[in-house]
Amino acid sequence: MHRFVFLVHPLDLKRDVARKYPFVKFLPAPLVEAMLWRMKPKLLGKVEGVKSTSGAETEGWLIAVPMTAKMMIEREEKAVSAIVEACKLAKELGAEIVGLGAFTAIVGNGGVEIQERSPVPVTTGNSYTTWTALEATKLAAELMGIDWQNATAAVVGATGSIGKACAYFLSHGAKVGDEVRFESVSEVILVGRNEERLNSLREELNAKASASIRVTTDIAQGLNRADIVITVTSAMDAVIEPEHLKPGCIVCDVARPRDVSERVHKERDDVLVIDGGVVEVPGEPRWEFSIGLPDKLTLACVAETMLLALEGRLEPFTLGRDIRPERILEIASIAAKHGFKLAGLRSFERQVSEEQIRRVRERVGKVAIGK
Ligand SMILES: NC(=O)c1ccc[n+]([C@@H]2O[C@H](COP(=O)([O-])OP(=O)(O)OC[C@H]3O[C@@H](n4cnc5c(N)ncnc54)[C@H](OP(=O)(O)O)[C@@H]3O)[C@@H](O)[C@H]2O)c1
Predict the structure, then answer these.
(1) CA nearest ligand 1 atom 40, residue
(2) How far apart are CA 183 and CA 304, in angstroms?
(3) Whole-prediction pTM value?
């Protein structure tokens, strides 16, 4: 059996650190941060019971890198060293592949610098994350009665690793063998902060795209016509507010920390926000330390790490900001072979019910599901 390690880190200074050390709830945030700066990567617990439908098994461990996203961006060199140290701990435990979670996959040029210094191959998990984000978005579009092929889709954070890959498939469609898994949409709007990078991405995608492609650095302008939004920035705080969104649209929020503000949840009952990248794991997974999802479910980046262990593909499968589309189609096939699948639709960490979709559709005057 091949074993894996997945690296996590606190997204929120107090809430997430308190899950491991409950006493920090009573400490002021600057003191918690000072405590984290002095800590070393820490073993959180074992993950057991992952069993592929083909019979292969894997198990692994979660290791915490004790830095928030803000701390990692502030001192990137220190973050890279802490992540490499965590990879060394993974090797000592017997792991043969390491998955980089959240910002551990962003610093160090999307894992490239980590791979150069790690004794174990690493993967960002962004290939399977891209695929499941698209799958969830397509499912949500069907349930919301959005005509995919005539839709306008916006990708926020389009110049990033997952953003670029999502923009590619939205504008080109996706085929697995002879089977068309997604048609392209009608128009793709690339939303980002850097116009030059956006324009060069548009040129790159335009070569064979079926959809028309526009770019904008103005998020409000980018989103106000979009029927479909996939958001994948590495921003520290929310970037999508209620006033940005078109009534009846769907928003797939892949980012951790989230891109969609809590206000959208409270104030816009006419849009459907779904969490990107949540996957059902085959077997009877047991987590000594919970990352906040039911035991059967995990994030797609964790699932990619498990899949590589199950498949014996102990290699840096996904790294950097340019993921080849073939890689994404390959991990989709590996996932299907081992019985991993999209965990339905979830929104702000809860399962989306038919009733919820019916209510959103009724708010925008669309006929309810099943009527
Ligand atoms: N759900 C999951 O399973 C899962 C798995 C993997 C990753 N993730 C999350 O997905 C997100 C993206 O990951 P990635 O690897 O694609 O990151 P990435 O390659 O670093 O790309 C992030 C993009 O966000 C943009 N950005 C950064 N700060 C911004 C801000 N303040 N406002 C607007 N745009 C901003 C960057 O644009 P510029 O070009 O302007 O700098 C960049 O294009 C992260 O939040 C990560 O934690 C989730």
Answers:
(1) 193
(2) 24
(3) 0.94
Total Cβ atoms within 10 A of residue 349: 10
CA distance 289 to 270: 36
Summarize pLDDT for 269-290 with one digit per residue, the tens: 999 999 988 999 999 999 999 9
Segment 306-318 shows an average pLDDT of 98
- Write the DSSP string, 259-316: SB-HHHHHH-TTSEEEES-EEEPSEEEEESS--SS-TTEEEHHHHHHHHHHHHT--S-
- Statement: residue 310 has pLDDT above 50: yes
Structural domains for the chain: 3-125+281-321 (no CATH), 128-277+345-363 (3.40.50.720)
Number of neighbours of residue 216 by Cβ within 10 angstroms: 17
Nearest CA to ligand 1 atom 43: 160
Centroid of ligand 1 to alpha carbon of 334 (angstroms)? 25
Ligand 1, atom 39, lies closest to the CA of 159
Dist. CA 355 → ligand 1 center (Å): 32
Distance (angstroms) between ligand 1 centre and the Cα of 309 equals 26
Residue 9 near ligand 1, beta carbon < 6 Å: no
Give the single-character DSSP code of 127: H
Q: Give residue 157 CA to ligand 1 midpoint distance, Å.
A: 6
Average pLDDT, the chain: 94
Task: Enumerate the β-bridge partners of residue 43.
Answer: 63
CB-side neighbour CA atoms (13 Å) of 36: 32
Question: Is a pLDDT exceeding 90 seen at residue 207?
Answer: no
Tell me if 278 CB under 6 Å of ligand 1.
no
At 75 the pLDDT is 96
Residues 233, 158 contacting (CB under 8 angstroms): no
How many degrees, rounded to 5, is the angle at CA 231 between CA 71 and CA 80?
A: 25
Q: What is the mean pLDDT of residues 341-361?
A: 91
pLDDT tens by residue, 129-157: 999 999 999 999 999 999 999 999 999 99
**Measured between alpha carbons, how far is 214 from 62 in angstroms, rounded to an integer?**
41
Residue 211 has a pLDDT of 93
Report the residue among 232, 240, 273, 318 best suited for mutation to probe ligand 1: largest number of ligand atoms under 8 A from its CB. 232
